[in-house]
Design goal:
Blueprint lengths: L1 E10 L7 H16 L14 E8 L2 E8 L5 H20 L3 E14 L11 E7 L2 E6 L3 H5 L2 H8 L1
Antiparallel strand pairs: 1-3, 1-4, 2-3, 4-6, 5-6
Length: 153
């Protein structure tokens, strides 16, 4: 099982250039500590990881990939909270929300599954892998809709 999430966090003001260093440190800490919490030691490679990020004005674009543990949408929520406690007090900037630009889930399956589920934009099956493209909002992620879809499939 693999999760791939691309999101855009929105801030209350433009991020200053000097905030990039704080962002880099926060991302490294998230990848090495925050996303590893609660993951069995033999499955650390399946925890969420931020593999891409960049800033533009008052937005932070991130891409999080994961396996079964600390799924990418859970990692996004953990990261948002941790980032708010660092960027907020130091730069007086708050996180206003986030948008999910693309969310793909790959699940190993023996046979193709033809489903019509809410929040599932596209379903494809190739080489024993079921690919789900989700169309979810901030509220859907916080209500754990991606987990419900995975458990249903």
């Amino acid at each position: 099982m693999e999760f791939d999430l691309k999101a855009r966090l929105k801030f209350s003001d433009n991020l200053p250039q000097e905030a990039d260093f704080e962002l880099q440190k926060t991302i490294e800490a998230a990848n090495n500590v925050l996303f590893i919490k609660g993951v069995p030691s033999n499955s650390v490679n399946e925890a969420g990881r931020i593999i891409e990020w960049h800033t533009n004005a008052n937005e932070l674009y991130i891409r999080i990939v994961s396996g079964r543990y600390t799924r990418s949408h859970e990692a996004l929520l953990r990261f948002r909270k941790a980032l708010g406690t660092i960027i907020g007090p130091k730069y007086r900037i708050g996180i206003r929300g986030y948008e999910i630009e693309e969310f793909t889930i790959l699940i190993e399956a023996e046979t193709p599954v033809h489903l019509k589920l809410p929040f599932v934009q596209e379903v494809s099956f190739e080489n024993k892998v079921l690919k789900l493209k989700l169309l979810v909002s901030e509220q859907d992620v916080e209500n754990q809709i991606p987990d419900e879809i995975v458990s249903f499939v």
